[in-house]
């Protein structure tokens, strides 16, 4: 399996994104986002997404160098239409505007519509936390076919609809960042590429029966991912769909499909300096963490972790030991880069 240093993976990614037509700023944002997703251990949302992005570009469904259009700017309410722009840049820009607004009004309720795939949503929670904010994001995913089965459904009716909440913590953000399916779709793709089964309870087949084989799901769009946490997780998935679609105005699941992978987001950005005082909020977060960590460790667990810790540990390990990219994903990246006219020699130079 090829192992990349962070710098080399950034350089290879930047070469590809630049050749897709992005300006220098967008290239930097997208490459930074994808490599940080790999560092966090979420290979499903890292550089392995590049072939999909290149396909979307060729099909005119991802628009480089886009600017979010203001649909509504009314007090604490901000609604922006990303118009199929590169999700990483559109969301970074939208959240930056929401942060600016929250500094004036104490909080901002952001609706961001119709960005191309926005990647690892936790990144935007980190962006808000770095500015002293708390962040809540409900995201839906509109794709040409639904892939997630809500509780009680034998057929897919939703996307993998991620949910994020982030607050500052002393060691880094406490960051819950998760698909509302038992596993993210990209994790089924990574399992399929590695030739390994997905864990029990993640996937159903065409008849709605449990299966561990990701290949028919990835290759032929057969079956569905299950919602996590029975009716409760499924309910959160439904609310992500409703808040990002019906409330924020993004494309809805089941609506006449407009093409591409579109993410819309309903987010709340809260200025902690105004709401509770930054120091008091941090002290409260730390006290809560300490209280949870004071528990006896349950049988079968080595330790108690809090949301965001596994990703921080992965990033530290991968910075030290390198970032593995599985053979098939690397081959797919090279093939897709070839469709942009990037030669093997260029890729090798970027990776040198
Ligand atoms: N853009 C999109 O359309 C889209 C769709 C779905 C998912 N995603 C992204 O996919 C990524 C992966 O999602 P996932 O659901 O597979 O994540 P996951 O299941 O690996 O982690 C989910 C959350 O649980 C926490 N966690 C993990 N292990 C833990 C432990 N042992 N103790 C305590 N907390 C723990 C993590 O810190 C994280 O906050 C996310 O970054 C998400 O934003 C994006």
Describe the structure.
- This protein is α+β, with helices and mostly antiparallel strands and 352 residues long.
- It is 43% helix and 18% strand.
- Bound molecules: nicotinamide-adenine-dinucleotide.
- Nicotinamide-adenine-dinucleotide (NAD) is lined by residues 42, 44-45, 117-122, 141, 160, 162, 175-179, 183-184, 187, 263, 305-308, 310-311.
State the main characteristics:
four-stranded mixed beta sheet, 13 strands, Hypothetical Oxidoreductase Yiak, Chain: A, domain 1, 13 helices, 18% strand, 352 residues, alpha+beta, binds nicotinamide-adenine-dinucleotide, seven-stranded mixed beta sheet, 43% helix
Share of helical residues:
40-55%
The chain-level mean pLDDT equals 96
Give the CATH superfamily of the domain at 1-61 and 322-352.
Answer: Malate/L-lactate/L-sulpholactate dehydrogenase, four-helix barrel
> Could you say which small molecules are bound to this protein?
nicotinamide-adenine-dinucleotide
Poorly predicted parts: none
The largest sheet, given as strand count, sense and whether it forms a barrel, is:
7 strands, mixed
Q: Kindly report the spatial arrangement of strands forming the biggest sheet.
A: 2-3-4-12-5-7-8
Tell me the total number of β-strands: 13
